[in-house]
Amino acid sequence: MFEDASDFQEYYRSRQGRHVAMRLRRSLSDFWSRSANGCNAAIGYAPPLLRADERPAVLNFAPMRLGPYDWPPKGPGRTVLVNGRSLPLQNVQLDRLLLIHALEFDPNPSRLLEECWRVLDGAGRLLVMVPNRNGLWARAERTPFGHGRPFSRGQLRTLLLDHGFTPIVAKTVLFMPPAALGLFLRFGPQIERIGQNWSPAVGGVLMVEAEKNLYAPAGKTSRKRIASGARELAPRPTSAIREGVIKRNDHA
Protein backbone atom coordinates (compact mmCIF):
# COMPACT_ATOMS: atom_id res chain seq x y z
CA MET A 1 0.00 0.00 0.00
CA PHE A 2 1.18 3.52 -0.84
CA GLU A 3 3.70 2.15 -3.31
CA ASP A 4 1.98 3.68 -6.33
CA ALA A 5 0.64 7.14 -7.17
CA SER A 6 -2.89 5.70 -7.32
CA ASP A 7 -2.69 4.84 -3.60
CA PHE A 8 -1.93 8.45 -2.71
CA GLN A 9 -4.58 9.76 -5.11
CA GLU A 10 -7.25 7.57 -3.52
CA TYR A 11 -6.31 8.66 0.00
CA TYR A 12 -6.23 12.39 -0.75
CA ARG A 13 -9.65 12.16 -2.42
CA SER A 14 -11.16 10.92 0.85
CA ARG A 15 -12.68 13.33 3.34
CA GLN A 16 -9.85 12.80 5.78
CA GLY A 17 -7.26 13.13 3.03
CA ARG A 18 -8.70 16.45 1.91
CA HIS A 19 -8.50 17.75 5.47
CA VAL A 20 -4.89 16.57 5.81
CA ALA A 21 -3.94 18.25 2.53
CA MET A 22 -5.52 21.51 3.66
CA ARG A 23 -3.56 21.51 6.93
CA LEU A 24 -0.25 20.76 5.21
CA ARG A 25 -0.88 23.22 2.38
CA ARG A 26 -1.43 26.06 4.85
CA SER A 27 1.97 25.36 6.35
CA LEU A 28 3.52 26.02 2.94
CA SER A 29 2.05 29.46 2.36
CA ASP A 30 5.19 31.35 3.42
CA PHE A 31 7.75 28.85 2.13
CA TRP A 32 7.76 29.26 -1.65
CA SER A 33 9.89 31.90 -3.33
CA ARG A 34 7.65 34.65 -4.73
CA SER A 35 10.42 36.26 -6.78
CA ALA A 36 9.69 36.69 -10.49
CA ASN A 37 12.78 34.56 -11.14
CA GLY A 38 12.02 32.10 -8.34
CA CYS A 39 12.52 28.39 -8.98
CA ASN A 40 10.35 26.14 -6.78
CA ALA A 41 10.10 22.34 -6.83
CA ALA A 42 8.81 19.38 -4.83
CA ILE A 43 9.98 15.77 -4.64
CA GLY A 44 7.67 12.90 -3.67
CA TYR A 45 3.89 13.01 -3.96
CA ALA A 46 3.06 16.70 -3.74
CA PRO A 47 -0.04 17.51 -5.88
CA PRO A 48 -2.49 17.72 -2.92
CA LEU A 49 -0.30 20.47 -1.44
CA LEU A 50 0.18 22.41 -4.67
CA ARG A 51 -1.94 24.86 -6.62
CA ALA A 52 -2.00 24.75 -10.40
CA ASP A 53 -2.15 28.57 -10.53
CA GLU A 54 0.83 29.04 -8.18
CA ARG A 55 3.21 31.75 -9.38
CA PRO A 56 6.02 31.11 -9.88
CA ALA A 57 4.95 27.61 -10.85
CA VAL A 58 6.13 24.62 -8.79
CA LEU A 59 7.80 21.74 -10.62
CA ASN A 60 6.77 18.31 -9.29
CA PHE A 61 9.41 15.54 -9.30
CA ALA A 62 7.80 12.11 -8.83
CA PRO A 63 10.03 9.18 -7.75
CA MET A 64 10.04 6.29 -10.20
CA ARG A 65 8.47 3.95 -7.63
CA LEU A 66 5.20 5.89 -7.92
CA GLY A 67 4.82 5.37 -11.65
CA PRO A 68 3.73 8.04 -14.13
CA TYR A 69 0.85 10.42 -13.45
CA ASP A 70 -0.21 13.83 -14.70
CA TRP A 71 -0.33 17.02 -12.67
CA PRO A 72 -2.00 19.38 -13.06
CA PRO A 73 -4.85 17.59 -14.85
CA LYS A 74 -5.32 20.53 -17.23
CA GLY A 75 -2.84 22.73 -19.03
CA PRO A 76 0.93 22.27 -19.37
CA GLY A 77 2.33 19.34 -17.40
CA ARG A 78 4.59 20.04 -14.41
CA THR A 79 5.34 16.49 -13.29
CA VAL A 80 8.52 14.58 -14.17
CA LEU A 81 9.24 10.96 -13.25
CA VAL A 82 12.77 10.95 -11.82
CA ASN A 83 15.49 9.03 -10.08
CA GLY A 84 15.84 10.79 -6.74
CA ARG A 85 19.59 10.18 -6.79
CA SER A 86 20.04 11.85 -10.18
CA LEU A 87 17.67 14.76 -10.68
CA PRO A 88 17.48 16.23 -14.21
CA LEU A 89 18.87 19.56 -13.02
CA GLN A 90 22.26 21.16 -13.08
CA ASN A 91 23.85 22.51 -9.91
CA VAL A 92 22.30 25.38 -7.90
CA GLN A 93 19.02 25.57 -9.85
CA LEU A 94 16.36 25.86 -7.15
CA ASP A 95 15.36 28.46 -4.56
CA ARG A 96 12.92 26.27 -2.65
CA LEU A 97 12.58 22.49 -2.49
CA LEU A 98 9.87 20.50 -0.67
CA LEU A 99 10.18 16.82 0.29
CA ILE A 100 6.77 15.24 0.97
CA HIS A 101 6.17 11.46 1.01
CA ALA A 102 9.78 11.17 -0.13
CA LEU A 103 12.48 10.92 2.53
CA GLU A 104 10.72 8.27 4.63
CA PHE A 105 10.20 6.02 1.59
CA ASP A 106 13.69 6.33 0.11
CA PRO A 107 15.93 3.31 0.82
CA ASN A 108 18.93 5.66 0.93
CA PRO A 109 17.82 9.02 2.37
CA SER A 110 21.44 10.21 2.53
CA ARG A 111 21.79 10.07 -1.25
CA LEU A 112 18.50 11.90 -1.71
CA LEU A 113 19.63 14.72 0.61
CA GLU A 114 22.95 14.96 -1.21
CA GLU A 115 21.07 15.49 -4.43
CA CYS A 116 18.85 18.11 -2.80
CA TRP A 117 21.97 19.96 -1.63
CA ARG A 118 23.42 19.88 -5.14
CA VAL A 119 20.43 21.39 -6.94
CA LEU A 120 19.60 24.08 -4.36
CA ASP A 121 20.93 27.59 -4.80
CA GLY A 122 23.38 28.94 -2.24
CA ALA A 123 20.56 30.84 -0.53
CA GLY A 124 18.06 28.02 -1.11
CA ARG A 125 15.79 26.46 1.49
CA LEU A 126 14.68 22.86 1.97
CA LEU A 127 11.42 21.89 3.69
CA VAL A 128 11.06 18.27 4.79
CA MET A 129 7.72 16.76 5.82
CA VAL A 130 7.91 13.27 7.36
CA PRO A 131 5.84 11.15 9.76
CA ASN A 132 6.59 12.06 13.36
CA ARG A 133 7.94 9.02 15.22
CA ASN A 134 6.25 10.24 18.43
CA GLY A 135 2.86 10.85 16.84
CA LEU A 136 -0.16 8.59 16.38
CA TRP A 137 -0.17 8.92 12.59
CA ALA A 138 3.06 6.90 12.26
CA ARG A 139 0.99 3.90 13.41
CA ALA A 140 -1.98 4.53 11.11
CA GLU A 141 -1.42 2.13 8.22
CA ARG A 142 -4.48 3.32 6.33
CA THR A 143 -2.77 6.65 5.79
CA PRO A 144 0.48 7.39 3.91
CA PHE A 145 2.07 8.52 7.18
CA GLY A 146 1.86 4.97 8.55
CA HIS A 147 4.33 3.72 5.94
CA GLY A 148 8.04 4.21 5.45
CA ARG A 149 10.42 5.29 8.20
CA PRO A 150 9.16 7.87 10.73
CA PHE A 151 11.60 10.36 12.25
CA SER A 152 12.00 12.08 15.58
CA ARG A 153 13.13 15.71 15.66
CA GLY A 154 16.58 14.67 16.78
CA GLN A 155 16.95 12.06 14.05
CA LEU A 156 15.89 14.41 11.27
CA ARG A 157 18.01 17.26 12.60
CA THR A 158 21.10 15.03 12.70
CA LEU A 159 20.45 13.70 9.21
CA LEU A 160 20.14 17.21 7.79
CA LEU A 161 23.26 18.49 9.57
CA ASP A 162 25.26 15.52 8.28
CA HIS A 163 24.32 16.37 4.70
CA GLY A 164 24.95 20.07 4.47
CA PHE A 165 21.77 21.63 5.86
CA THR A 166 21.22 23.79 8.93
CA PRO A 167 17.70 23.42 10.43
CA ILE A 168 16.14 26.79 11.20
CA VAL A 169 12.48 25.97 11.95
CA ALA A 170 10.96 22.75 13.27
CA LYS A 171 7.33 22.12 14.13
CA THR A 172 4.63 19.48 14.04
CA VAL A 173 1.17 19.59 12.51
CA LEU A 174 -1.82 17.26 12.27
CA PHE A 175 -3.02 16.80 15.85
CA MET A 176 -6.39 15.22 15.22
CA PRO A 177 -6.54 11.41 15.69
CA PRO A 178 -5.79 9.48 12.48
CA ALA A 179 -9.15 7.72 12.72
CA ALA A 180 -10.95 11.03 12.95
CA LEU A 181 -14.14 11.47 10.95
CA GLY A 182 -17.23 13.64 11.12
CA LEU A 183 -17.18 15.79 14.25
CA PHE A 184 -13.39 15.61 14.64
CA LEU A 185 -12.86 16.91 11.11
CA ARG A 186 -15.39 19.69 11.65
CA PHE A 187 -13.40 20.93 14.64
CA GLY A 188 -10.03 20.37 12.98
CA PRO A 189 -8.79 24.00 13.26
CA GLN A 190 -9.55 24.10 16.99
CA ILE A 191 -7.81 20.76 17.54
CA GLU A 192 -4.75 22.02 15.67
CA ARG A 193 -4.52 25.15 17.83
CA ILE A 194 -4.85 23.16 21.04
CA GLY A 195 -2.22 20.68 19.89
CA GLN A 196 0.28 23.37 18.91
CA ASN A 197 -0.10 25.04 22.31
CA TRP A 198 -0.29 22.04 24.62
CA SER A 199 1.19 18.95 22.96
CA PRO A 200 3.49 20.00 20.09
CA ALA A 201 5.55 16.81 20.35
CA VAL A 202 2.68 14.51 19.30
CA GLY A 203 1.71 16.11 15.98
CA GLY A 204 1.43 13.53 13.21
CA VAL A 205 3.71 15.25 10.71
CA LEU A 206 7.14 16.65 11.50
CA MET A 207 8.17 19.67 9.40
CA VAL A 208 11.73 20.98 9.35
CA GLU A 209 12.84 23.91 7.22
CA ALA A 210 16.58 24.11 6.64
CA GLU A 211 19.00 26.34 4.81
CA LYS A 212 21.84 25.13 2.65
CA ASN A 213 25.25 25.17 4.30
CA LEU A 214 27.73 26.29 1.63
CA TYR A 215 30.62 24.74 3.55
CA ALA A 216 29.27 21.20 3.59
CA PRO A 217 31.61 18.31 4.48
CA ALA A 218 33.73 17.31 1.50
CA GLY A 219 32.90 13.93 0.00
CA LYS A 220 29.23 14.07 0.94
CA THR A 221 27.36 17.02 -0.49
CA SER A 222 30.06 18.95 -2.30
CA ARG A 223 29.77 17.08 -5.59
CA LYS A 224 30.26 19.35 -8.60
CA ARG A 225 29.01 17.06 -11.33
CA ILE A 226 25.63 15.60 -12.12
CA ALA A 227 25.51 11.85 -11.63
CA SER A 228 26.18 9.83 -14.73
CA GLY A 229 23.09 9.28 -16.86
CA ALA A 230 21.14 12.31 -15.62
CA ARG A 231 19.20 14.22 -18.25
CA GLU A 232 20.20 17.85 -17.83
CA LEU A 233 17.95 20.83 -18.09
CA ALA A 234 19.34 24.18 -19.18
CA PRO A 235 21.46 26.21 -16.72
CA ARG A 236 19.67 28.65 -14.47
CA PRO A 237 17.94 30.97 -15.04
CA THR A 238 15.57 29.62 -17.67
CA SER A 239 11.96 30.37 -18.43
CA ALA A 240 11.27 26.62 -18.67
CA ILE A 241 12.23 26.02 -15.04
CA ARG A 242 10.72 29.26 -13.75
CA GLU A 243 7.42 28.46 -15.40
CA GLY A 244 7.63 24.80 -14.43
CA VAL A 245 6.25 23.83 -17.81
CA ILE A 246 6.82 20.42 -19.37
CA LYS A 247 5.33 19.68 -22.76
CA ARG A 248 3.03 16.71 -22.78
CA ASN A 249 3.27 14.10 -25.49
CA ASP A 250 1.21 14.98 -28.51
CA HIS A 251 -1.17 12.10 -27.87
CA ALA A 252 -1.71 12.97 -24.18
Overview of the structural elements:
- With 252 residues, the protein is an alpha/beta fold.
- It is 25% helix and 20% strand.
- The protein has one domain: Vaccinia Virus protein VP39 (Rossmann fold).
- It is built from seven helices and seven strands, in the order H-H-E-E-E-E-H-E-H-E-H-H-E-H.
- Strands 3-2-1-4-5-7-6 form a seven-stranded mixed beta sheet.
- The longest helix has 12 residues, at 15-26.
Structural descriptors:
252 residues; alpha/beta; Rossmann fold; 7-stranded mixed beta sheet
Q: What's a concise summary of this model?
A:
The chain is α/β, with parallel strands linked by helices.
Q: How many structural domains are formed by the residues?
A: 1
| Main sheet: strand order | 3-2-1-4-5-7-6
Strand content: 15-25%
The CATH architecture can be named as 3-Layer(aba) Sandwich
Q: How would you summarize the topology of this molecule?
A:
Blueprint lengths: L4 H9 L1 H12 L13 E5 L13 E6 L15 E4 L11 E7 L8 H11 E12 L21 H10 L2 E9 L9 H4 L1 H11 L6 E8 L26 H5 L9
Parallel strand pairs: 1-2, 1-4, 2-3, 4-5
Antiparallel strand pairs: 5-7, 6-7
